[in-house]
Amino acid sequence: MNVRNLPAPMKRVVHLGSRSYGRLTSDQRMLPSFLICGGQRCGTTSLYRALAAHPVVLKAVLHKGVHYFDTSYHQGIDWYRAHFPARRAAEKVAERYGVPAQTFESSPYYMYHPQAVARIAHDLPYAKIVVLVRDPVERAYSQHHHEVARGFDTERDFGSAIALEPARLHRQEERLAADPEYYSFAHQHHAYRARGEYARYLSVMAQHIGRERIHVVESERFFVDPEPVYDEVCAFLGLPSNLERPPFEQHNARPRQADMDPQLRRELYAYYQPHDEALRGWLGHTPIWRRG
Question: What is the mean pLDDT of residues 185-198?
Answer without folding.
Answer: 98
